[in-house]
Amino acid sequence: MAGNFSFDQLKKAVSSGEIDTVLACIVDMQGRLAGKRFLAQYFVDSAHDETHGCNYLLAADIDMEPVPGYKAASWSKGYGDFVMKPDLATLRRVPWLEKTALVICDVLDHHTHDDLPHSPRAILKKQVKRLTERGYIGYFASELEFYLFNETYDSARKKHWQGLDTASPYIGDYQIGITTKEEGVMRRLRNEMEAAGIPIENSKGEWGPGQEEINVRYAEALDMADRHVILKNGAKEIAESEGKAISFMSKYNYGLAGNSSHIHNSLWSADGKTPLFFDKNADWTLSTLGQQWAAGQLKYAKEFTWFLAPYINSYKRFQAGTFAPTKIMWSEDNRTAGFRLCGEGTKGIRMECRIGGADLNPYLAFAALIAAGLAGIDEKLELQKPFVGDAYQASRLPEIPKTLRDATETLAKSKMLKEALGEDVLEHYVHTAKWEQFEYDRRITDWELHRGFERY
């Protein structure tokens, strides 16, 4: 939960005029920052303790439409307030915005001041607490991919999202020459995120024209989720200030590679010094604990897929031969696998979940992976042998749910997630998934018009 700016430093910066604005942000169900811009002096004087927001923010869809049917918030309950409690440990400067600092807030019940159970950050904190109670630290890292366009969001909208000019005209995966053209945004992104306390290891071209990947240094799960959402928000703001646009859609173009968010995860001792997945004498040098953790994630992958792929569009990414997985299995260093063992033979050994798209909410995704891993440990599951070969062509392997409808059905039936997250929390997000499906089912798409306007 580390920012790079103490409250005392903030007070001094406000007094000197270096900082005049503080962003107090919660994370909504879609994984976006939402909140208020405070006059910095007012934040220092009183709002650092708490502020308030409308509870519809955790009961609305991506269009900010209040969704009927939630137990937690509704028109019949009047859409009251919740408490936004700044976590001052997350305080940081925002180098890409003038004289601005940012803090992430926990969402608390307005009456009891307890964590609001269906808040994404509270969901992850609950699972982190389960790790802590067992003497574990969960280290996570999420690799974000996105497309960079020589467009503004306004120009892309006017083109109806068609025929967009990507930052590079052809695939530049790992290619230095072509990605140099993208350095105006990417250099700023690396350096200014670093200055904001989000350590960036590297960026690279990906397997699509103008597609990028940026890698953030691993961290404890909650800290990593905070880094993830600030990075996504900041990337868009930096790009926009350069006259560019960024998209984190899982699949913005049928003919091009999708955007993933691969999630690396492992357990370490409570002091963060001993890797609990490394055993040089074990099969694959993966300890019994690590094998049980991985086996749990494999067993329950269908049940938590929605937390990795929350939208209709998310499922368009799961296509054979595109580096996106289609099967639930694990393998040693095999990019056709849903789960890949990385760092074999070293203390950095970890499991990489390759199912998630760049549109996921990291708090929900990390929480689901922790819950499944702990279930595997509790059930003392045995890890199957690693798959060898092209998983796309293996017909007998279990498949990742093909549609949002399929994923919602398995989510709703999950006894493991109901127990780990709480029945009301699971119901809240099942309702979210069903609403996304309902909204899509009643819309007319461009594909339908093109196919049927004349020919039906």
From TrEMBL:
Indicate what this protein is called per its UniProt record. Answer: Glutamine synthetase
Give the species: Mesorhizobium erdmanii
Q: GO MF terms on file? A: ATP binding; glutamine synthetase activity
Which cofactors are reported in the record for this sequence? Mg(2+)
Keyword ATP-binding attributed: yes
* Keyword Nucleotide-binding in record: yes
Annotated family: Belongs to the glutamine synthetase family.
Task: Report the residue ranges that make up the GS catalytic domain in this protein.
Answer: 120-456
* Pfam families referenced in this protein's UniProt entry, alphabetically: Gln-synt_C (PF00120)
For this UniProt record, the keywords arranged alphabetically read as follows: ATP-binding, Ligase, Nitrogen fixation, Nucleotide-binding
Q: What does this protein do?
A: Catalyzes the ATP-dependent biosynthesis of glutamine from glutamate and ammonia.
List the InterPro entries. Gln_synt_N, Gln_synt_N_sf, Gln_synth/guanido_kin_cat_dom, Gln_synth_cat_dom
Q: Name one GO biological process term.
A: glutamine biosynthetic process
Q: Where is the GS beta-grasp domain?
A: 17-115
